[in-house]
């Protein structure tokens, strides 16, 4: 599955290999932008169905995603499972449920993201659900870019796993090798 997913991302220009300056200022040999795949509704639907197939046995009753990155794929997973899909968003700091979204005590929640890097925002989303008394049965992402090192305290599923390290600019091995750096989104980034 990983190879098929990653190849489709490469074809869409959503996964680039090279030497990139990310918006965080860190450097990385890989650039990943799920939105470039998810902009195609049929592709988004297929990815959502694939995640739903992985987690259906956990019998989730609602999908919860962190805004903005998780909203589109969360909607598609909810569609495939036949359950509602809601999202948490930041307002002055922590992720919270707004817009009248609510979880019931004991409700079985699946947390869905597009990409998991360290698991930090996934875990924060899990805590949002628990604060409502809901039960988080699993978390899932399209791509785990930690290479399997994400830290979440529920069963975790991904359609693809890839290790895309990030470096401080002053300790970047690609800079040390003199590899030219590109900003993601520029055409020159596509080799
Ligand atoms: Zn560098």
Task: Give a nutshell description of this structure.
With 191 residues, this protein is α/β, with parallel strands linked by helices.
Keywords summarizing the entry:
191 residues; alpha/beta; six-stranded mixed beta sheet; two-stranded antiparallel sheet; 6 helices; 8 strands; 29% helix; globular; binds zinc ion
Explain this structure to me?
With 191 residues, the chain is α/β, with parallel strands linked by helices. It is built from 6 helices and 8 strands, in the order αββααβαβββαββα. It has helices spanning 2-11, 35-38, 41-55, 71-81, 120-131, 173-176, and strands at 15-21, 27-32, 62-66, 84-90, 95-97, 108-116, 135-144, 156-161. A 6-stranded mixed β-sheet has the order 5-4-3-6-7-8, with helices on both faces. Strands 1-2 form a two-stranded antiparallel sheet. A hairpin with a 4-residue loop joins β4 (84-90) and β5. The two termini are 24 Å apart. The mean pLDDT is 93. The structure holds zinc ion. Residues 19, 27, 169, 172, 174-175, 181 line the site of zinc ion.
């Amino acid at each position: 599955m990983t190879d098929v997913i990653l190849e489709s991302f490469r074809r869409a220009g959503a996964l680039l290999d090279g030497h990139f300056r990310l918006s965080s200022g860190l450097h990385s040999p890989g650039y990943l932008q799920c939105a470039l795949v998810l902009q195609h509704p049929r592709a988004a639907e297929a990815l959502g169905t694939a995640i739903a197939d992985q987690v259906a046995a956990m019998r989730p009753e609602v999908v919860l995603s962190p805004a903005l990155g998780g909203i589109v794929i969360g909607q598609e997973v909810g569609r495939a499972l036949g359950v509602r899909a809601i999202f948490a968003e930041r307002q002055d700091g922590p992720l919270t449920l707004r817009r009248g979204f609510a979880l019931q005590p004991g409700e079985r929640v699946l947390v869905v993201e597009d990409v998991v890097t360290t698991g930090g925002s996934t875990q924060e989303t899990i805590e949002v659900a628990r604060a409502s008394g809901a039960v988080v049965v699993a978390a899932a992402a399209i791509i785990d870019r930690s290479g399997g090192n994400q830290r979440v305290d529920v069963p975790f599923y991904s359609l693809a796993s890839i290790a895309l390290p990030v470096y401080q600019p002053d300790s970047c091995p690609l800079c040390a090798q003199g590899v030219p750096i590109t900003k993601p989104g520029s055409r020159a980034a596509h080799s």
